Amino acid sequence: MKILIAEDEPSLRENLQLMLELEGYQVRSACDGLDALEQARAHCPDLLISDVMMPRLDGFGLVEALRQDAATAMLPIIVLSAKADRSDVRLGMTLGADDYLVKPYRREELLDAITTRLSRSRQVAQATVRHQDEIRQALQLDPLTSLPNRLGFEQAIASELRQHQGSGPPAITVVCLGLDGFSRINDGFGSTVGDLVLCEVSRRLGHAVRQLGQSAGQHPVARLAGDCFGICLRTSAPAPALASQVRQLMQVLAPPFQIAGHSLHLNASTGACQASDSSCTAVSLMFNAESAMRHAKPHGPGAYRLFDGAVNQQVARQLQIHNELHNAVANGALLVYYQPQIQVGTGQLRGFEALARWQHPTLGWVSPAEFIPIAEASGIINQLGESVLRSAAAQAVQWLNLGQRDFRMAVNLSVRQFASGQLPALVGQVLHDTGLPAHMLELEVTESLALQSVASTVATLHSLKALGIKLSMDDFGTGYSSLAYLKRYPLDALKIDQSFVRNITHDAGDAAITRAIVAMAHSFGMSVIAEGVETPEQLAFLRQLGCEEFQGYLFSRPVPASEALRCFGGYHPV
Questions:
Q1: Closest by alpha carbon to 87, among 100, 69, 78?
Q2: How far apart are CA 236 and CA 171, in angstroms?
Q3: Quick one: which of 6, 194, 314, 380 could link to 36 by a disulfide (CB 3.0–4.6 Å)?
Q4: What's the rounded Cα separation, in Å, for the pair 528 and 473?
Q5: Distance CA 379, CA 326 (A)
Q6: Where in the sequence is the domain holding 70, given as residue range(s)?
């Protein structure tokens, strides 16, 4: 144990140092309080023995300075003084001394005080370590499932990687699992049932890991966030064998979950990343596994993806788009193109759909199917949507001023715009600022958007309708709209998704669905617009069904405003 002595009298300092060294202590000495303060900060002793009367900084000042410094605040201090006045003792103890001995003291008395203070210091240190360990464990555990959380999982993987250092590529694979459609359980049955499901998922995954011959203690199942779980497997199996192991893991989710009287069925999308070399880190393995899982999800429930070069390139591209999209919107780098909508019976122009387009300086043309979901996820879609709305309204006014009449401008709404609660006020402000007559603006809502919080959706739609604008439902037929809901919405038109129109002339199923949509829309007093019309045969079929309008490459692809003027002439087939 290391002891620091602060004593200005050389003979007392030397005698005390010799006595303590004979007892086996490592001893340093200081000739005054300031010297002792510097040495305490530099060498971190286990105990300080200090005289009171010293030059530059006395013992009381030394105690006070040490207690105010976080590095020395817990240092045990014994004060030695020739003054036995009770007020001096009280002052020393008040300032933070642990013991106060009056000179001359007996050798045994000092050694007993040292032993007592060091023993108590060790006890405090051990209690502190235990407490810190408890805090550390609590910070690394998910309170719901008692599994490691993201931090605990990361540290467990890091520990595995350290064990493989210097022995070639680590035989470690990280699997990330995300439950498909779990939000429907929370929405339908409440978070209490959802929590019970998550606990059962954690139990089943732990069992599955053990069935694979893996030790759940060494290779923990972790709850990373929400409905996302992580699994660390000690394997470097080839891709087909790894896929088989992952499928075995997923099989434990197949039996229905019997929770609170409900029989619930779950699937999960999974992504995996294998440690390719010794330079892999826990963070990179987890990030790549989660990226692979996100790329698997669009392929449907139960999909699996192994992280590879293609995913890596796609992740890098998405990250670049995400990082640069904000500046592109703020600087007006995104363009608005216009696709004409034509009346089926007469070929006359009925309106335009305004569509965002982005020509990136290095990536070239970035598809809306790529940047719109990223804009939705990042929240920049609100600014993007408002920018498109303002640009489209202003462009329509320009065409009005050029003498064009009898057309409307259609603009798409995003889920985030609709959920903000500010949409009616924004649309009213845009109409006021641009001078566009309200009846010339049409807002398109998606089928999935309209199914969210039906009561508030209906209220918002009626508020928009009260402004005098038109409303249509885009991509109809791709979701799960209920007719009971649909007839409550104040819609003017339904738009048939191009996925049905594409095969309408040679797929009996798509033809039947399209025929049913047209008949249903007409029964509700709505008109129908068909998207993606590319051939005269498709147009002829739609004409037979009584579809009122179409848009698609048969007439024109989306074009800049400068080219859209020619579209006012309408469609005149040869």
A1: 100
A2: 5
A3: 6
A4: 10
A5: 10
A6: 2-136
- Residue 266 CB: number of other CB atoms within 10 A? 22
**Strand (E) positions, 189-292?**
221-225, 228-233, 257-259, 262-264, 267-274
d(CA 497, CA 482): 17
157 and 131 within one domain: no
Residue 314 included in any domain:
no
- How many residues appear in the chain? 574
The model's pLDDT over 67-78, given as tens digits with 9 standing for 90+, comes to 888 888 889 999
Nearest to 246, CA basis, from 297, 209, 215, 287: 209
CB 83 within 8 A of CB 101: no
Strand locations in 347-452, DSSP E? 349-360, 364-366, 408-412, 441-446
- Helix 282-296 × helix 150-163 angle, to 10°: 120
pLDDT of residue 483 exceeding 70: no
CA distances from 268 to 205, 221, 451 (A): 12, 15, 24
Contact 289, 174 (CB under 8 A): yes
* Max CA distance (Å), the chain: 120
CB 269 within 8 A of CB 296: yes
Secondary structure (3-state) at 289:
helix
Task: Tell me the pLDDT tens digit for each residue of 87-104.
Answer: 767 777 777 888 888 888
Identify whether 76 is part of a domain.
yes
